[in-house]
């Protein structure tokens, strides 16, 4: 059964990784960096998708799974959510990274190249995404009915939609800073590779301990919400009130909600 879960998880996270790679490939077709308005729209859309995915694809299934196991869902869902947020907070503090458009790196001091730290910043965003998609497809592999797989597919499509511009958001700015097209593409593509890695690792952990799945689903939700509140929404507004950023967040939420309701 675990082999089937890993296979499903690899398919789902492989799709979202491919979306990032295709987005990074835009460096071969466009010369200029993204405009500020475009960047706001993409970041806001990603935030909305991740908020909706946290609710419909992670927290609600975690509650249902805990109840099916005969447990009170309060502890695993709230506990997992809090631990997931704390995990990303610690990772954010210790991993050296540099956000696009920023001059001051975050995390522990490290003598790394600017391009490397930009890739690490996007990698932080992609860790909870990989966990979420991997877990959703793992649950679909366990479910004998046909109900879980469409929901997992909806989540993968939603994550893929926001990963495409995310890959471009890595490669295009690097190209505008003088990095070669090939290297900029590789850096953008590498930022998405973390999704299959963490997706499979999370499924392995969840499958090795009986009854831990509700905790892990809530953990992924907490990690994603941390990324949204700490990074995506502030960057979507870029230091000022932005109707474009706000509308993009709502649009991303709406698209992910529609996908989940229609397919799930």
Written overview of the protein:
With 264 residues, the protein is mainly α. The chain contains eight helices and no strands. It has helices at 2-24, 36-68, 74-94, 114-142, 148-176, 181-208, 213-237, 243-263. Helix 4 (114-142) runs antiparallel to helix 5 (148-176) and helix 5 (148-176) runs antiparallel to helix 6. The radius of gyration is 18 Å and the shape is globular. The two termini are 23 Å apart. The mean pLDDT is 85.
Describe the secondary structure blueprint for this structure.
Elements: H1 2-24, H2 36-68, H3 74-94, H4 114-142, H5 148-176, H6 181-208, H7 213-237, H8 243-263
Helix pairs in contact: 1-4, 1-5, 1-6, 2-3, 2-5, 2-7, 2-8, 3-7, 4-5, 4-6, 4-7, 5-6, 5-8
- Helical element count? 8
The counted number of beta strands is: 0
Rounded radius of gyration (Å) = 18 Å
Helical fraction equals: over 70%
The end-to-end span amounts to 23 Å
Average pLDDT: 85
Shape: globular
Biggest sheet statistics: none
Number of domains: 1
Order of helices and strands: HHHHHHHH
Query: What percentage of amino acids are in beta strands?
Result: under 5%
Q: What is the chains' assembly state?
A: single chain
Unreliable stretches: none
- Structure class: mainly alpha
Keywords:
264 residues, 8 helices, single chain, 79% helix, mainly alpha
Gist?
The chain has one domain.
